[in-house]
């Protein structure tokens, strides 16, 4: 018998506490990774700060699941998965944000490269996903439109 | 003056003689009537969509402006009047030409009479079933069935559930259905005898966590994503696609637990799994995406044989063929307001559909006797409200309709009423595509006003907005209509304006389409200045004013005779000669 989704969510909820602990870690410990990339104010600077000067190529092997038009800009669900072998990192950027790097996931060898997050978007922007694998960078882009609500018929 | 039946048949014969495009199944045999064409193949699927709760026969004028841009230029459904007839090889002056276009609308409507009405539709559906063998037929409903009339509003859609049960709807999906409250939707669906399907409505994770019900807690599907129907010795999988932008285009507050979307990659996964698991003879989709979105969906998703589309209210006589990675998909759109019944006969074999015959049959009320049982149900539904519905308000001095990219005469009445009753400089009214047509000389009743306005968030507002805010609204709606990527379009038409003119370049990008905004007195609208704006149908929060139907009814009673002779179409830029406009 499978566990229901609700029970599963409830049992996982307990582990959320361990995430919160991170916030109490000394600042200098967190600062050692990606601080420059997260703080960069331009897309190219953020990518360079995160990955150095690796070449980037567009890839159709990265699947971005996100609404074409957001139901709620304050709460946009995004999932990224890829079939590129040997993935070590998946990072997500929105160029128009004051600091474009939104999230960066390190992928370990036994992990499935499939990540999800909720993000806040004040206005229409592209999601730029960079996947690092075998010393190369792969890119996919997807627009998410944020509207002021309309008059569909 | 109505046509005699003999004359009607004679004109049909003329259409048949003029000939339809080669390869298009003729809907007009030369010696028999429109609805008499025998059977073809193994199964027959019928399709209604966007009936907008029109239980009674009505008039409905098709658009004379339906612009297609980019890849959609001149492509169905973006053809109007003469360009439309030419594309489909339909002879002018025939009942079919009248059903599909706005050519000489008033004269033709007087000749050919009203269309639709569930009692007439029931007769036609039963005949299509009987001709083929009822056990090999299916009736699909694309949604927008529970909204659009006073009776549907007062019964919270339950009257339409009863009518659809009697009509014999087997499978449906939805859009305006979700403008009732979540618990009302569930109650209505419990009373619905068919299957409700939607692969793209999911229960939000946080709602699931707090105990909201789902069809499948593991996938999050709020409703059954598909159903397999056995028709004789064949099995057909019917997938549902509800309107993807329901919580954006309509209030999310009524349905807080549910999330929508196009979810094209989920669709591909579902089609693949249905084909692998169920091994059906055909996979079809009932969709409320709108035709341009359906065409793109058919390009990016393989394995769907037919998409039965709705939402954009396009009466498209023949399926649009889309080639994709693994084959082809037929994309249809079956009009609105009960005016059409789509009928496709399929010959099935190895690898799915081998041959098809499609007809989009206009439901000419005068040519189809009423079904007594359905008429009795309609009479019962209407009886408690009859006096209110039939209340005369004014006389139409000119043709009143809604459909068109930028304006319709009835919208102009609504805009005028909003401005006058709220003492506003500017008024805004949503570009809906539902609402029936009123011929010159007809009495405008409360029922007509409700046809144009009836919904669960009808409240009006009047408030100050800056010129910039007004421009932002126009730009936002224009992008929903003219974005070159159909997946970013929401359907519907441009927001209607009263007391405000503007210029639009539909080919420009978001934020750059609108300029030259002026008040009625010709003064330019200034970005930082405040203007008093009246409107209705607010999607965000409930507005404080009276329902818009009271505003319009009071205005009409005051006017007695209303005449709209000139449309407030904005100045169009960069459109050139587009087969989606009839400038005559």
What can you tell me about this protein's structure?
- The complex is a heterodimer of chains A (153) and B (584).
- Chain A has 153 residues and is an alpha+beta fold.
- Chain A has five helices and eight strands, in the order H-H-H-H-H-E-E-E-E-E-E-E-E.
- Chain A has a single domain, classed as Sandwich (Immunoglobulin-like), CATH 2.60.40.2470.
- In chain A, the strands form two sheets. Chain A has a five-stranded mixed β-sheet. Chain A has a three-stranded antiparallel β-sheet with strand order 2-3-6, with no helix packed on it.
- The radius of gyration of chain A is 17 Å and the shape is globular.
- Chain A starts with a helix and ends in a 9-residue tail after the last strand.
- Chain B is of the alpha/beta class.
- In chain B, the strands form six sheets. A six-stranded mixed β-sheet of chain B has the order 4-3-2-1-13-14.
- In chain B, a hairpin with a 2-residue loop joins strand 11 (320-324) and strand 12 (327-333).
- Chain A binds chain B through residues 2, 4-6, 9-10, 13, 63, 65, 67-72, 77, 124, 143, 145, 147-153, and chain B through 205, 208-209, 211, 214, 217-218, 220, 243-250, 252, 259-262, 265, 311, 313, 430-434, 472-473, 476-477, 479-480, 485, 487-488, 490-493, 495, 510, 537, 539-540.
Largest sheet, spatial ordering of strands of chain B? 4-3-2-1-13-14
Q: What's the architecture of chain A, going by CATH? A: Sandwich
Strand neighbour order, sheet with most strands of chain A: 1-8-7-4-5
Number of H/I helices of chain A:
5
Count of separate structural domains of chain B: 2
The third-level CATH topology of chain A is Immunoglobulin-like
Write the layout of secondary structure elements.
The complex is a heterodimer of chains A (153) and B (584).
Chain A: H1 5-13, H2 16-22, H3 27-31, H4 35-39, H5 43-51, E1 56-58, E2 62-65, E3 76-82, E4 87-93, E5 101-106, E6 114-119, E7 125-133, E8 136-144
Parallel strand pairs in A: 1-8
Antiparallel strand pairs in A: 2-3, 3-6, 4-5, 4-7, 7-8
Chain B: H1 5-18, E1 43-48, H2 81-88, H3 95-100, H4 105-112, H5 118-132, E2 137-141, H6 150-154, H7 158-167, E3 171-172, H8 182-191, E4 195-196, E5 202-203, H9 205-209, E6 226-231, E7 234-241, H10 246-249, E8 258-259, H11 264-278, E9 282-287, H12 291-300, E10 306-309, E11 320-324, E12 327-333, E13 340-349, E14 352-362, H13 372-382, H14 386-389, E15 392-396, H15 409-422, E16 426-431, E17 443-445, H16 446-453, E18 460-466, H17 467-482, E19 493-498, E20 500-504, E21 514-519, E22 530-536, H18 548-559, E23 561-562, E24 571-572
Parallel strand pairs in B: 1-2, 2-3, 3-4, 7-9, 9-10, 10-12, 15-23, 16-22, 20-24
Antiparallel strand pairs in B: 1-13, 5-8, 6-7, 11-12, 13-14, 15-17, 16-19, 18-22, 20-21
Helix pairs in contact in B: 7-13, 15-18, 16-18
């Amino acid at each position: 018998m499978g566990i229901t989704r609700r029970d599963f969510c409830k049992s996982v909820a307990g582990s959320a506490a361990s995430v919160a602990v991170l916030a109490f870690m000394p600042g200098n410990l967190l600062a050692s990774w990606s601080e420059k990339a997260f703080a960069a104010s331009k897309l190219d600077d953020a990518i360079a700060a995160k990955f150095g000067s690796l070449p980037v190529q567009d890839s159709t092997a990265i699947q971005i699941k996100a609404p074409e038009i957001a139901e709620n800009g304050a709460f946009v669900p995004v999932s990224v998965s890829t079939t590129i072998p040997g993935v070590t990192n998946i990072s997500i950027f929105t160029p128009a944000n004051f600091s474009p790097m939104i999230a960066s996931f390190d992928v370990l060898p036994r992990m499935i490269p499939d990540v999800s997050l909720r993000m806040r978007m004040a206005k229409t922007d592209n999601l730029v996903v960079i996947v690092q694998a075998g010393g190369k960078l792969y890119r996919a882009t997807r627009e998410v439109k944020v509207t002021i609500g309309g008059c569909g018929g | 003056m109505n046509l005699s039946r003999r004359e009607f048949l004679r004109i049909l014969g003329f259409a048949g003689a003029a000939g339809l495009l080669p390869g298009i199944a003729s809907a007009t045999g030369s010696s028999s009537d429109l609805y008499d064409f025998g059977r073809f193949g193994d199964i027959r699927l019928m399709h209604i969509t966007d009936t907008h709760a029109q239980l009674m026969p009505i008039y409905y004028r098709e658009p004379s402006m339906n612009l297609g841009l980019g890849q959609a230029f001149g492509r169905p459904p973006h053809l109007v009047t003469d360009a439309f007839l030419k594309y489909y090889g339909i002879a002018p002056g025939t009942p079919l030409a009248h059903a599909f276009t706005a050519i000489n609308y008033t004269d033709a409507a007087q000749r050919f009479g009203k269309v639709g009405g569930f009692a007439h539709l029931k007769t036609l559906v039963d005949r299509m079933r009987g001709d083929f063998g009822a056990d090999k037929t299916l009736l699909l409903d694309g949604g927008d069935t529970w909204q659009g009339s006073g009776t549907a509003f007062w019964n919270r859609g339950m009257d339409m559930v009863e009518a659809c049960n009697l009509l014999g709807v087997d499978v449906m999906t939805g859009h305006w259905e979700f403008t009732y409250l979540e618990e009302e939707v569930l109650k209505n669906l419990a009373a619905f005898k068919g299957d409700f399907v939607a692969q793209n409505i999911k229960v939000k994770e946080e709602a699931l966590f707090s105990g909201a019900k789902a069809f499948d807690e593991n996938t999050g599907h709020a409703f059954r994503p598909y159903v397999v129907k056995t028709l004789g010795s064949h099995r057909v999988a019917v997938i549902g696609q509800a309107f993807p932008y329901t919580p954006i285009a309509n209030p999310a507050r009524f349905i807080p637990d549910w999330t929508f979307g196009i979810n094209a990659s989920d669709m591909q996964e579902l089609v693949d799994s249905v084909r692998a698991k169920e091994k059906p003879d055909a996979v079809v989709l009932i969709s409320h995406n709108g035709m341009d979105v359906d065409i793109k969906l058919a390009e990016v998703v393989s394995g769907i044989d037919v998409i039965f589309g709705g939402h954009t209210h396009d009466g498209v006589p023949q399926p649009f063929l889309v080639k994709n990675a693994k084959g082809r998909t037929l994309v249809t759109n079956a009009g609105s307001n009960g005016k059409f019944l789509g009928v496709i006969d399929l010959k099935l074999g190895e690898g799915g559909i081998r041959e098809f015959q499609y007809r989009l049959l206009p439901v000419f009320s005068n040519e189809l006797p009423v079904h007594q049982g359905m008429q009795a149900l309609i009479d019962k539904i209407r009886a408690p409200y009859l006096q209110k519905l039939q209340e005369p308000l004014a006389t139409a001095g000119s043709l009143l309709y809604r459909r068109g990219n930028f304006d319709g005469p009835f919208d102009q009445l609504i805009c005028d009423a909003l401005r006058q009753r709220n003492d506003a400089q500017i008024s805004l009214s949503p570009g809906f595509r539902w609402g029936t047509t009123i011929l010159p000389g007809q009495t405008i009743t409360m029922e007509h006003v409700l046809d144009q306005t009836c919904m669960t968030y009808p409240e009006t507002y009047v408030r100050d907005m800056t010129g910039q805010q007004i421009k932002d609204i126009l730009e936002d709606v224009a992008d929903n209509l003219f974005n070159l990527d159909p997946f970013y379009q929401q359907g519907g038409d441009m927001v209607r304006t009263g007391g405000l003119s503007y210029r639009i370049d539909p080919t420009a990008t978001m934020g750059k389409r609108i300029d030259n905004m002026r008040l009625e007195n010709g003064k330019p609208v200034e970005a930082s200045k405040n203007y008093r704006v009246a409107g209705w149908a607010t999607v965000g929060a409930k507005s404080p004013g009276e329902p818009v139907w009271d505003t319009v009814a009071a205005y009409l009673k005051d006017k007695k005779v209303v005449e709209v002779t000139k449309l407030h179409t904005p100045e169009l830029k960069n459109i050139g000669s587009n087969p989606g406009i009839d400038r005559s």
